[in-house]
Amino acid sequence: MSASASASASLEDNCLLRWGIIATGMVASWFVTDLCLTRPDAQARHVIQAVGGSSLEKSQKFVATHITTNDAQGRHTGVKAYGSYAEVYADPDVDIVYIATPHSMHRQNCLDAIAAGKHVLCEKPFTVNAREAREVFAAAKAKGVFVMEGVWTRFFPLVRTLQRLLHEERAIGDVHRVFCDFAMPKPMAQMSLTNETRLTNRALGAGTLLDIGIYSLMWGMLALDPGVGEAARKPQVLASQSIVNGVDWATSMLLTYSTSKDGSSPAQHAILTSSSLTKTPAAFCRIEGTTGYVVIEGFAASVPTFFTVHDTTAPDAQPKKYEFERPGKGFYWEADSIAHSIAAGKTENKLMPWAETLCVMDLMDEVRRQGGAAFPQDEQ
Predict the structure, then answer these.
(1) For FRET with 196, which of 32, 171, 230, 320 sits at 20 to 30 Å CA-CA?
(2) What pLDDT score does 5 carry?
(3) Is residue 259 domain-shared with residue 278, that is, in the same domain?
(4) Three-state SS for 345?
(5) Distance (Å, rounded) from C-alpha 175 to C-alpha 269?
């Protein structure tokens, strides 16, 4: 066996994850479809081992639709369909649980999976508030299992490249301001009549902030601060929300990062918004620096397609466009990174550590405190 073939075999042996999927909705279907893709540059091997839904029929339909028919390598043909989440947690062949349930269920789903000794990838927002997140992380620490919030966009090569250009190569000098919007039109008034969806039911973590505003928040933090988790700076936040029946239909946030203790340099600002009343144009984010600016474009802030760097010091300079191939949706990048973390015996991922999740949850709690969107879970 050649050295390269040996290295590849070792990679597959050490970075193999057997997944249990919790929930059978749209995001879960995107995730498993991505993990079934055949990728020549794959950095880990993933097997869909089990799916648990609210009924056996839903799980069986999910498996037949999204897994066995999309499997090019024969990895997932023995997927077990369960009619409950508990059966997935109890399955001895499941290494890690992917949680894609509504926001309000994340805390209990995580705690149940952790109690069963499973590693956890839980979709954003990690929980409804920071108190719940701290409870989950405390349980994970006591059990010694890996846990991560699934903010898939952070793992895109586009995002990693942008961070390098901004903070290491200083492609636009000192970054001083960011604008980012994530808006998707939703019939909030109609949905409020039944109050059954996660977008309008406060008990389910309703509103734009936790659903899409979290991505605007992500871009502001990534653009203004190279630090992550414990190394990140803590910004001040001013917020306003458009509240209808206790639910935010739109949210505006201003993050302020101090750049010097003596006031000799200006503070950095991030103006970040989310709304259910309109659709954000393709150019959803602009990052401004002392020597240029960056425009990020895509269908939405969660799925950037490309970005363009503009040099304002050279009027005749052509903007430089950075494009990235993204087969499928792009969930496999975070899955590969998790596989490497677990293979190395880690309980956290360096790109999305627990402290980063807590920082974001604390900021969103403060935004809601100022804006007026409260959840029943805040009172517990």
Answers:
(1) 32
(2) 38
(3) yes
(4) coil
(5) 9
Cβ-based burial of 108 (10 A; exposed 0-12, middle 13-18, buried ≥19): middle
Q: What confidence tens digit (pLDDT) does each residue in 266-309 have? A: 899 999 999 999 999 999 999 999 999 999 999 999 999 999 99
Q: What is the pLDDT of residue 7?
A: 39
* The pLDDT value given to residue 188: 84
Contact (Cβ atoms closer than 8 angstroms) between residue 177 and residue 268: yes
Q: Are residues 9 and 145 in the same domain?
A: yes
Give Cα separations from 276 to 4, 182, 189, 192, 237 (angstroms): 50, 9, 11, 13, 22
CB atoms under 10 Å from CB of 362, counted, come to 17
Point out the residues of the chain with pLDDT beneath 70. 1-14, 68-77, 193, 260-264
Helix (H, G, I), strand (E, B) or coil at 318: coil
Q: Are both 140 and 219 inside the same structural domain?
A: no
- Compute the residue count for the chain: 380
Distance CA 242, CA 335 (A): 36
What are the E-state strand segments in the chain?
16-22, 45-52, 80-82, 96-99, 119-123, 147-150, 175-183, 236-244, 247-257, 268-275, 283-289, 292-300, 303-311, 320-323
Expressed as residue numbers, the domain containing 37 is 3-152
CATH number for the domain including 122? 3.40.50.720
Q: What is the distance between the alpha carbons of residues 204 and 376, in angstroms, rounded to a whole number?
A: 9
> How far apart, in whole angstroms, are the C-alpha atoms of residue 118 and residue 144?
10
HEC assignment per residue over 242-293: EEECCEEEEEEEEEEECCCCCCCCCCEEEEEEEECCCCCCCEEEEEEECCEE
Please check whether residues 366 and 264 belong to one and the same domain.
yes
- Alpha-carbon gap, residue 296 to 286, rounded angstroms: 6
For 162, what's the count of Cα atoms within 13 Å in the CB-facing half-sphere?
A: 33
**18 SS3 class:** strand
Tell me the two tokens of residue 141: 């620490």
pLDDT at residue number 34: 95
**What's the number of CA atoms in the CB half-sphere (13 Å) around residue 359?**
21
Whether 249 contacts 206, CB under 8 Å: no
Beta carbons of 377 and 136 less than 8 angstroms apart: no
